[in-house]
Design brief:
acyltransferase, Single_hybrid_motif, OB fold (Dihydrolipoamide Acetyltransferase, E2P), single chain, lipoyl, 28% helix, transferase
Length: 511
């Protein structure tokens, strides 16, 4: 008998809520099968089976609050699987609990075929839920193992859900547009081509419960409790879209943000009013989860940071001459064109080393200084703005940066970016110039304290050595969090970027 305990959940995290058991007592499990999901105020954690055997006992129930090291259940290794099997074959046995009964009715409906659940995969650190955007298969369709069955859209990336086995789609448990969490079942596959019997499985699974208020006895998770406490709202008033009507972290954030919007007279008119009727030449389209998250995060940045922008201009002539002189040989050697962005990344890294506050972040009453330089590069896609990160930019050459950015840009446009590609940036560069922008004030990407805005290059008359000449000039804009970055530091940073770009040879030689 092996105990299943709550693992270490990260620094300063002392408890979690049991979110969902993916296996029932008596189920046969394999080593590393996900048994249960735990939700903390920061992340969702999957707890796996330590060995092959049978889940003999579930100690902590869904909704229970558990501490680190607490007992969740037990796995019985060895020959106990045979004892558990008859319990499943007896129809009356599960009558004590209506939930397991619903799951076990699916097996007879498959006419003897083994029923396999299709579950939502892990979506990455801090991503607790997504939206089921598309089913690529319907009930009765044959599928192969690893064939994509559905697509899930999170607030950061789109995920593909592969088939766990060969067989036939017997049941679609979730519907397009539903909110789903890691480990939740969205469909079931019957082995052996038993798709014709799929309709009989449908009545056995009740439709997902409609969103209801957490006040109806649903437990409150640590993340919801923390968010509601910080916002000064009653967690029982938060409508829940999770399992059994429980409020999720996303529900709490939406509720708090909507409450804040209604409290503001400037936004109450547009956000708190009921949907209006549309005219014959209008079209109403639901915002994607990515667009909703972009809107929320940008508004949060404005509300939380003391954001200020300082400007300068830079003569791009030296870099343009350098690119023109060496472009052919650069392409021949590295297989990629020498663009402007690599120079800007290098210039920003040099300036960040001199002004570390711009590369830092605020954590409560502390400042975290980062001695690494992961530069986010804003990329526009059909679905919205994403900010993939160029890791360890200070260790890359110009060619290395150009290849890194080209790869990120391609994957962003193809929808192939992962959560890891967009996490952990320390500073962001946004190039509005590719769209023709002359000047703008970029918005911070929290928790970062600085973002540099690039703009279009324009020939303008400037004074050089007492003479008016026409030079290719670009406006630069640095938006920064004035809580951590002083005006002197912000101006110094921007001046150092300007100096590096106007004399790139010195920057590259580090003199």
């Amino acid at each position: 008998m092996t105990d299943i305990s709550v693992p270490t959940l990260g620094e300063s995290v002392t408890e979690a809520t049991v979110g969902q058991w993916l296996k029932s007592a008596g189920d046969t499990v394999k080593r590393d099968d996900v048994l249960v999901e735990l939700e903390t105020d920061k992340v969702s954690v999957e707890v796996s089976a330590p060995e092959d055997g049978v889940l003999s006992e579930i100690v902590a129930k869904e909704g229970d609050t558990v501490e680190i090291g607490a007992l969740l259940g037990r796995v019985n290794a060895g020959g106990s699987a045979g004892k558990a099997a008859p319990a499943k074959a007896e129809a009356p046995a599960p009558a004590k609990d209506s939930k397991p009964a619903a799951k076990e009715e699916a097996a007879p409906a498959a006419s003897g075929g083994k029923m396999t659940d299709v579950v939502v995969p892990a979506m990455g650190e801090s991503v607790a839920e997504g939206t089921l955007s598309t089913f690529l298969k319907k009930v009765g369709d044959s599928v192969k193992k690893d064939e994509t069955i559905a697509e899930i859209e999170t607030d950061k990336v789109a995920l593909e859900v592969p088939s766990p086995a060969d067989g036939v789609i017997a049941e679609l448990v979730a519907s397009e547009g539903d909110g789903v969490t890691p480990g939740s079942v969205i469909a079931r596959i019957s082995a052996g081509g038993a798709g014709a019997s799929a309709p009989s499985a449908s009545p056995a699974s009740p439709p997902p419960p409609a969103a209801k208020a957490a006040a109806e006895g649903a437990p409150v998770s640590p993340s919801v409790r923390r968010i509601s406490t910080e916002a000064g709202v009653d967690p029982s008033n938060i409508p829940g879209s999770g399992r059994d009507g429980r409020a999720t972290k996303a529900d709490a954030l939406d509720y708090v943000n909507n409450a804040a919007s209604k409290a503001s007279s400037s936004t109450a008119v547009t956000e708190s009013r009921a949907p209006r009727d549309i005219g014959p030449r209008e079209e109403r389209v639901r915002m994607t989860r990515l667009r909703q998250t972009i809107a929320r995060r940008l508004k949060e940045a404005q509300d939380s940071a003391a954001m200020l922008t300082t400007f300068n201009d830079v003569d791009m002539g030296a870099i343009m001459d350098l690119r023109k002189k060496h472009q052919d040989s650069f392409v021949a050697k590295h297989g990629i064109k020498l663009g402007f962005m690599s120079f800007f990344v290098k210039a920003c890294v040099n300036a960040l080393k001199e002004v570390p506050a711009v590369n830092a972040e605020i954590d409560g009453t502390d400042i975290i200084y980062k001695n690494y330089y992961d530069i986010g590069v804003a990329v526009g896609t059909d679905k919205g703005l994403v900010v993939p990160v160029v890791r360890d930019s200070d260790d890359l050459s110009l060619a290395g940066i150009e290849k890194y950015i080209a790869d990120l840009g391609k994957r962003a446009r193809d929808g192939d970016l992962t959560i890891g590609d967009m996490q952990g940036g320390t500073f962001t560069i946004s190039n509005g110039g590719i769209y023709g922008s002359l000047m703008s004030t970029p918005i911070l990407n929290p928790p970062q304290s600085g973002v540099l805005g690039m703009h279009r290059i324009e020939n303008r008359p400037v004074a050089v050595n007492g003479q008016v000449v026409i030079r290719p000039m670009m406006y630069l804009a640095l938006s920064y969090d004035h809580r951590i970055v002083d005006g002197k530091e912000a101006v110094t940073f921007l001046v150092r970027v300007k100096e590096a770009l106007e004399d790139p040879e010195r920057m590259l030689l580090e003199v």
